[in-house]
Amino acid sequence: MANRRKFLAGLGALASGSAAAVGTGALSSVSAERSVSVAVATDENSFLGLNPTDQRAYQEGGQLKLDFASSDVKGATNAEGLNPNSRTTFLDLFEVVNRGEDPVYVGVGTQKSDVYANSVSSANRDNHLFDFSNLSGYVYAEGTTGQGTGLPFSGGNGQMVIDSGGRVDLDFEDGGSSDPTSNNQIIKPGQSLTVDFDLIVDGKGLGGGGGKRITVAAADPDITRDNPDT
């Protein structure tokens, strides 16, 4: 509070001095231009780095892509997809790197119902990988047997959604902690986590309703959002 009082007192002194210099003139508006430096980097080099670490993950057009269907990947021999009625685990597919200046909570969204807030219209919701009727699974971090720390948008570690304005909303009211030492979905600046996928096929095909998309999102756990758009 002492610092705040000093700041207010400083503003008062500045206002008084200005009044003495310019008389009774009142400020109506101000416009000032400043330079801004902005650039778009590849997924590997952006603030939230996405780096392929397995032959099923690669960069195309500067963006991370995953391939569970094609045999046109390094080391594959005539593979065309997943086994029917099966569970297949892919370890260390890609790495999420925090190149920012603050800790971030990371989630990997695989169903549109988990990714988007209820306020987002159905027309603005894209089908995701696990929206296929016969495909489900799990996403883990740092797992060695497919049983590592889960990376859901919402769960015991926190609740994250993308709202109607495209903003990532995050809160810990229903569980979880914003402390990186007690929340495995939070990575500090310069740290990373490696993502594993468990894919479960319940049938002879994928079924309908799915899409070729996952969503990787991150948010600063220390920023309070007064009215999360859920």
H/E element order: HEEEEEHEEEEEEEE
Helix content: 10-25%
Shape: globular
Main-sheet strand order equals 1-4-12-6-7
How far the N terminus sits from the C terminus, by CA atoms, comes to: 34 Å
Strand content: 25-35%
Task: Give the number of helices.
Answer: 2
Structural class: mainly beta
Mean pLDDT: 81
Low-confidence stretches are 1-22
Computed CA radius of gyration, to the nearest angstrom: 24 Å
Structure description:
- With 230 residues, the chain is mainly β.
- Helix content is 11%, strand content 30%.
- It contains 2 helices and 13 strands.
- The chain has helices spanning 2-22, 112-115; strands at 48-52, 57-60, 63-66, 86-98, 104-109, 135-141, 149-150, 154-155, 158-162, 168-171, 186-187, 192-201, 215-219.
- The strands form 4 sheets. A 5-stranded antiparallel beta sheet has the order 1-4-12-6-7, with no helix packed on it.
- A hairpin with a 2-residue loop joins strand 8 and strand 9 (158-162).
- Mean pLDDT is 81; it is low at 1-22.
